[in-house]
Design brief:
466 residues; mainly beta; Tachylectin-2, Chain A; Jelly Rolls; 2 domains; six-stranded antiparallel sheet; binds 2,5-dideoxy-2,5-imino-D-mannitol
């Protein structure tokens, strides 16, 4: 890493160097949050996967730990792919996919287990793999086990796909080592991709939630969620609602954990396959999203919000009441300069006459200005614009806003090369990497052809955790 690295983030989880992707094995163990992740420790490119490891007491400050899993056996010589963690008899167990490359170039994927008493050093099970072949419902693309306990039994779903349909294959066990195939809990309805990566199925309130990261025919991928019911008699999951997990480009392979307060917390990989990652020039690639807490809303939708612990990052605070933003050039916020910021705002929609309004960032030295978060009132859309990226992808992501909202709360985190936006009680999140040319950003507001009232706006400068 070079000192002039203006993309290296201040308060997001990143590995010390080199490549990372999916979060793995998220678990609350002995009073601490453990985060494992897909890691290639030898270069900033994807390569034979290891499991990197870190832990935290508060989901904000992280301590890097030694690599937990490395390819070492024939069955995982091509990488220790994604998986999960569970606790049994005070031991921390990692369940992961062993990947190997066959002579004809195809891959074989098997499910494996490793255990640890101290939560730091892991020993692979001598009897690995614990599942050595896919069932007839699946194919050799057979990976990313997710394990949980229900009553006296352990359950595992594994991502796969066959005949153009992604599937979550279900297994059952009494001891974590011997598994019986129970059929698929659910498969794609035909529009949800040909292969499902990183499935995560868990209870939330009265319902169950399934998060999956499908690969589509055109090789694009995104993460979606389904809310529904899990029937342990029939071994089927029946969705009632399917939603987009994140409307931005950079939140893939999300995984969750349950903590000691009964909270369901998720992290995603805040990048994407195929993204151009300019940080590679500085010897690293990939980060985790901020941790988010999941809840069910009264209308049955999923709420995804940043965990409250993030307020530990807050430093200088600015508060504004009743800001009227018009189409005249403004400096309503004074000159707030910074690249690690949290912004909360409550917007009065009833009296809004502006066609468009939002938050813009300016690079003071570069004489460059960008509208990053725009509400298009006519289209009823929220837009996150990352055409500011002087490097990397420069696309725009957007989502519809619910009709007839009287006011709207927004919550925005900016961290050097990322933007995470949460609106409408966490019904909509947009996470994107951005690569601005300068590390001094001024925040301001704008409105076009009319005005808008911001009832309350608060901004915090955030400190670095590294
Ligand atoms: N990443 C892992 C796989 C998983 C994919 C390999 C999803 O286990 O399916 O690094 O990003």
């Amino acid at each position: 890493m070079v000192n002039s690295d203006i993309y290296r983030m201040g308060y997001h989880f990143m590995s010390p160097a080199n490549w990372i992707n999916d979060p793995n094995g998220l678990i609350y163990f002995n009073g601490e949050y453990h985060l494992f992740y897909q890691y290639h420790p030898y270069s900033p490119e994807w390569g034979p996967m290891h499991w990197g490891h870190a832990k935290s007491k508060d989901l904000v400050y992280w301590e890097h730990l030694p690599i937990a899993l490395a390819p070492s056996e024939e069955y995982d010589s091509g990488g220790c792919f994604s998986g999960c963690a569970v606790i049994i008899d005070d031991k921390l167990m990692l369940i992961y996919t062993g990947n190997t490359y066959l002579e004809d170039g195809s891959r074989k994927q098997v499910q494996c287990i490793a255990e640890s008493k101290d939560g730091i050093h892991f020993q692979k099970f001598e009897g690995n793999p614990i599942i050595s072949d896919p069932p007839l419902d699946g194919t050799m693309e057979f990976r990313d086990p997710n394990v949980w306990k229900h009553k006296e039994s352990w359950y595992m779903i594994v991502g796969s796909g066959k005949d153009g349909k992604g599937k979550a294959l279900l297994y059952k066990s009494i001891n974590l080592f011997d598994w019986d195939y129970m059929g698929y809990v659910i498969e794609s309805d035909g529009s949800q991709g040909q292969m499902w990566e990183c499935p995560d199925l868990f209870p939330l309130g009265e319902k169950h939630v399934l998060i999956i990261s499908p690969i589509y025919d055109d090789k694009t991928r995104n993460t979606i969620y389904m809310i529904g019911h899990m029937n342990y008699e029939t071994c089927k999951f029946t969705p009632e609602f399917t939603g987009v997990f994140d409307y931005g480009f950079d939140n893939y392979a999300a995984q969750s954990l349950l903590d000691d307060q009964g909270r369901r917390i998720v992290f995603g990989w805040m990048d994407h396959w195929g993204s151009y990652l300019p940080t590679k020039e500085n010897g690293w690639a990939g980060a985790m999203t901020l941790p988010r807490v999941l809840n069910l809303l009264p209308d049955g939708k999923l709420s995804i919000k940043p965990v409250p612990e993030l307020s530990l990052l807050r430093e200088k605070h600015y508060k504004y009441l009743h800001l009227k933003v018009t189409d005249k050039p403004t400096s309503l916020l004074g000159n707030i300069v910074g690249d690690c910021l949290e912004i909360m705002a409550e917007i009065d929609f009833v009296n809004c006459t502006a066609e468009e309004f939002g938050i813009k960032l300016k690079c003071p030295e570069g004489n460059y200005e960008q509208k990053i978060v725009t509400f298009n009132t006519f289209a009823g859309q929220i837009i996150v614009n990352r055409t500011m990226s002087n490097k990397g992808d420069s696309s725009i992501s957007y989502s519809k806003i619910r009709n007839n909202l009287e006011s709207l709360k927004i919550h925005l985190f900016i961290d050097k090369s990322s933007i995470e936006l949460f609106i409408d009680d966490g019904r909509v999140t947009l996470s994107n990497r951005i690569y601005p040319s300068k590390n001094r950003l001024e925040v301001d507001l704008f409105a076009k052809n009319g005005s808008v009232n911001i009832k309350l706006m608060e901004i915090w400068k955030l400190k670095s955790i590294w």
